[in-house]
Write a structure and sequence with these properties.
Elements: E1 10-12, H1 13-20, H2 24-33, E2 38-40, E3 46-49, H3 50-65, E4 69-70, E5 82-87, H4 91-102, E6 108-113, H5 116-125, E7 130-133, H6 142-150, E8 160-165, H7 169-174, E9 183-186, H8 191-208
Parallel strand pairs: 5-6, 5-7, 7-8, 8-9
Antiparallel strand pairs: 1-3, 2-3, 4-6
Helix pairs in contact: 1-2, 5-6
């Protein structure tokens, strides 16, 4: 990894990408989403603190180690953590969403899946409380997965489904639409609104346990 020519405590986006082992585009995405705090030099170049990169490196290592990421696992009994599943075929976007949710410091676990079929298999083992899913995916897409969930009776009725998509509303309707209770966010993802929904579900979970 190349060191900054002016300050060992800061890195360029390319240096951060080398440290984290991801594409430059991924680091740019994380900067734009606020996962990595950055600032611009007088010449218009982005700079990122080395400490922030190292912290994200540790979080990313945990996120990729075994699938499910636990937030505050030692502080919360397993049956009181909110279970969130994120389904997204773009690996960079999947990492981004997983890391952002895990960084909220809430009592939850996050399970990633890269297509609808894998998600349904994982749900058979551990049904999530909240499903965050893309629509356009190879194989079983989000439309098919949601239709499958809603066709099996009451087993998944308590699951909150949140769609994050680049599709326009007209295209969603053309492809059959979505159930009325599904919340739809359009990319770029409004993470503040997503966090508010997750916090609301955690509050409801707390009243029942």
């Amino acid at each position: 990894m190349r060191k900054s020519a002016t300050n060992d405590d800061v890195l360029s986006t390319r240096e951060a990408a080398e440290r984290l082992g991801v594409a430059l585009r991924t680091v740019q995405l994380w900067v734009e989403a606020g996962v990595l705090p950055a600032w611009k030099t007088a010449g218009g170049h982005r700079r990122i603190s080395r400490a922030a990169v190292e912290r994200l490196f540790d979080e990313r290592t945990a996120a990729l180690a075994g699938g499910t990421v636990l937030a505050n696992p030692a502080q919360e009994p397993a049956d009181t953590r909110l279970k969130v599943m994120v389904v997204e075929d773009d690996p960079e976007m999947l990492q981004l969403i997983t890391l952002v949710i895990s960084d909220w410091g809430l009592p939850l676990s996050v399970t990633p899946a890269d297509n609808g079929f894998e998600a349904l298999l994982l749900m058979g083992q551990n049904c999530p409380d909240v499903l965050v899913t893309d629509l356009n995916m190879p194989g079983m897409d989000g439309f098919q997965m949601i239709a499958s969930l809603r066709s099996v009776g009451a087993a998944f009725d308590e699951m909150d489904i949140i769609v994050v998509t680049a599709l326009r509303p007209q295209e969603i309707e053309r492809r059959g639409g979505l159930p009325a209770e599904v919340v739809v966010f359009h990319k770029p993802i409004p993470f503040d609104a997503l966090e508010a929904l997750v916090r609301g579900r955690i509050a409801r979970l707390a009243t029942t346990t």
